[in-house]
Automatic annotation (TrEMBL):
Gene Ontology CC terms, in alphabetical order: membrane
Record's keyword annotation contains Protease: yes
Reaction equations catalysed: Cleavage of hydrophobic, N-terminal signal or leader sequences from secreted and periplasmic proteins
Top-rank taxon, per record: Bacteria
Family per record: Belongs to the peptidase S26 family.
Active site annotation, chain numbering: 69, 124
UniProt keyword annotations, A-Z: Hydrolase, Membrane, Protease, Transmembrane, Transmembrane helix
UniProt name for this protein: Signal peptidase I
Organism: Thiothrix lacustris
Amino acid sequence: MAFDLEWILVSATAISGVIWALYRLLVRNASEKPEPVLVEYARSFFPVLLAVLVLRSFVLEPFRIPSGSMLPTLEIGDFILVNKFAYGLRLPVAHTKILETGKPQRGDVVVFRFPNNPDIDYIKRLIGVPGDVVEWDNKNLRVNGVDLARVAVGQYNALDQNNGVHATFRLTEDLLGISHDILVVPNTGGSRGSITVPEGSYFMMGDNRDMSHDGRAWGLVPEANLVGKATYVWMHANFGGDGFKPSRIGNSID
């Protein structure tokens, strides 16, 4: 069974709250008696756990970037904050939406639960929204019949998970009015395909186009799998790689 911090946090909050509440309800003159150690711990931890649960479930959740699939936008070792209310408020663990707050937009950098294994969180850029037709041919991308314009930036040395360096080329891509940078590996082939995005689903790709396991390989992301919108880098630490980089702190994710 995968380690599930969300489930542990919900359970710990519920257990501490129940212990404290039962003691107050069932023990006469509870406020005048010394509390048992277990009740004292429950009373102390419950408000802290509840605050963390609410913040993490409905406001902001931190994530660490473990791979280079979103280079150059996100680097290995970036610690990011994800806006949990951007695409609707969801109950923790059950992930049932209880309030609609907004819809994902083309070009958003999105954290989602991997469709083939929902225990794993992925982060990619949203390329296709419902109704879009997305086509890819080697390194070229077309959305709704429009070839996406690209401007060369220059060479980029991409660091992978094993701290190996790959010579790539950096381009600025115009995703129907949304500008962002991508990487491609020169003189290599690529896949070819197309997909029409149905209602309730989204098509995602990594910015490191030739080194990303994304929708081109495994298809669409259901709306129910969305976790939130990546917003800021709050720290960067890749020990064994490029170390601590203060210059990454506070960078917005566009």
